[in-house]
Every structure is written in C-alpha cells, then in structure tokens.
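To the wet lab folks,

You asked to see what we're planning to order before we commit. Fair enough. Below is the target structure as tokens, and below that is the sequence we designed to fit it. If anything looks off to you, flag it before the synthesis order goes out.
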C-alpha cells in the first residue's frame, strides 16, 4: 500500500481556478495531500474498470456456464430430511 512506504515526491506545476485555490488556502487545505488522496481513488477506479473490460469475456463465459449447468455447490448443499 502506498501509505506504508515513503513515496518519492516530485514538484509539479498545476493550473487551478484562482477562487478555488484561495478558498482552499483560507481553509488550510493541504493541496498536495488532497490531490494525492483523490488521485489514488481515481486510479483505483480506472484500474478496476480496465480489469473488468479486459476480463469481460471470461466473466460472460463463466456466467453462461452457470446458467446452463448451475452451481456445483448447489448440488452438494446439505438438505436435512424432515
């Protein structure tokens, strides 16, 4: 996890709406920390989206198999006799 190791930092130039920047400074919001936190969330969502796109054929295939044959576990489930 990124927070468990010392991350290398790099200075960057950003263009930010002046009013947003002024208000963030006034509220003492740490811009670097906020950007990093939000980027982590966005990157995680994008990786998940990409994984789903790359694996959609396999997901569709297993779902079709289950639709045709059912789940093995449903046949092995304990059913007490009354």
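Sequence we intend to order:
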């Amino acid at each position: 996890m990124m927070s468990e190791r010392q991350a290398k930092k790099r200075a960057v130039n950003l263009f930010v709406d002046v009013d947003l920047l002024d208000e963030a400074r006034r509220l003492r919001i740490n811009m670097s920390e906020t950007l990093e936190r939000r980027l982590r969330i966005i990157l995680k969502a994008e990786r998940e989206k990409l994984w789903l796109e790359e694996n959609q054929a396999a997901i569709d295939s297993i779902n079709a198999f289950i639709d045709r044959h059912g789940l093995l576990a449903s046949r092995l489930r304990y059913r007490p006799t009354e």
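Structural context that might help your review: The mean pLDDT is 89. The radius of gyration is 24 Å.

Thanks,
Computational group
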